Amino acid sequence: MGGGIRKLGSVAIDVVWQLGFIARFFWLILVYSGQSFTRLNLTIRELYFSGVLSLLIILVSGLFVGLVLGLQGYEILQRYGSSDSMGTMVALSLLRELGPVVAGLLFASRAGSAVTAEIGLMKVTEQLKAMDMMAVSPIARVVAPRFWGGVISMPLLAAMFSTMGIFGGWLIGVVFIGIDDGAFWSQMQAAVDFRYDVLNGVIKSCAFGVAVSLIAVFQGYDCVPTAEGVSRAITRTVVSSALAILALDFVMTSFMFRGL
Q: Of the four, 23, 86, 107, 185, which is 20 to 30 A from 71 by CA?
């Protein structure tokens, strides 16, 4: 019994310590962001690395998610004589939930893990220590550009995911099944609200971008400088990012759509 209590206390202390370290790390990123923005080429390069190189998987996944939503939605809606509302169902599902969440999970798997591996390998090869020796802040030179590259990329990728998903729903519903094109788009435009649907989805994707980017750069910066340590850091990035996205989605949804 005493050993279990000691183990529980040790775990709690480690969690509190790590949360404090992450908070301090995030504060340092914000402090040194000004220096990183003075070198815009660094941030632009990370935008390409995190955003453009993730575009293919985002677009293809969004298209197939829209196709599946269209098929499933049509099977359900036609039972109640509401198959023309398929556009509304696809758009609201993507803009409110599936777009930001699935895009965030894909972003964490592709870009987040790559950022962690890159920073971790720089730590293994002692490049970060070399920057310290030359009076160059590794947070300003390495961490902050990658953080902001992910934060800026995530909302854009989520918007493209939702757009391709809506296109996939239109493709399966109008082109293949034969739903009226005008009814598909008109009912969607009448049902989608900019404040509750589009803007809230953008806010969610921004929050997911901050969470995933912070976890990715922190795990890479804090990893054990060995091959096994980098591997574990990448795994922690993907798992922690997925849990953070789902938890944030629940909390933000409970506040955003409580009055509907």
A: 107
Q: Return the residue matching tokens 């920073």.
A: 119
8 A C-beta contact, residue 234 and residue 113? yes
Task: Work out the average pLDDT over 103-131.
Answer: 90
Task: Copy the structure tokens of residue 172.
Answer: 């399966």
State how far the Cα of 33 lies from the Cα of 139, in Å rounded to an integer. 9
Least confident span in 65-79, 200-214, 236-250: 65-79
Biggest alpha carbon–alpha carbon distance for the chain: 71
Query: How remote is the C-alpha of 198 from its chain's centroid?
Result: 17
Say what angle helices 144-170 and 86-93 make with each other, to 10 degrees: 170
Q: Provide the residue ranges of all domains of the chain, joining segments of one domain with +.
A: 32-256
Asked if 106 contacts 205 with a C-beta cutoff of 8 angstroms, the reply is no
32 touches 132 (CB < 8 A): no
Apex 184 CA angle, 181 and 187, nearest 5: 135
Tell me the angle at which helices 200-222 and 113-124 cross, rounded to the nearest 10 degrees. 20
| Nearest CA-CA partner of 120 in 245, 243, 237, 244 | 237
Please state the pTM of the whole predicted model. Answer: 0.89
106 contacts 54 by C-beta, under 8 angstroms: yes
**Measured distance CA(200)–CA(203) in Å, rounded:** 5
Query: CA Rg, the chain, in Å?
Result: 21
How many angstroms separate the Cα of 24 from the Cα of each of 19, 82, 206, 218, 240?
9, 53, 21, 11, 18
Dihedral of CA 240/245/246/251: which sign?
Answer: positive
Residue-averaged pLDDT of the chain: 87
